[in-house]
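Model it.
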Amino acid sequence: MKVSLVVPVYKKTFDQVNASLKTLKTQSYSEIEVVVVFDGQDSELQGPIQNEFDKDKRFSFHEIEHGGAPRARNFGFTKTTGDVVAFWDADCYAEPEMVKMWVRVFERNPE
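Modeled.
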């Protein structure tokens, strides 16, 4: 089961976004993709963040015209390829086993 995480980014610091994405990068469950959507241009943040995560094929980066978090989430959703999609905030942090626990729950309760 592949899990997609959509992360809208707007007016966050490098440290916030970097820390959040690192917690997704270090998930013990490997079948994930992280779709990062910059809600409006933020060249000071976008370049450094992309440089930090571009080498990891599980991450993709997109930019839309500023329209708010729901618009960024909806756009990101169209870019996902997972069986399950979750929305993640750019200033939230995940424990390393989080996605693995989600998958166990979904597998036990397919309905």
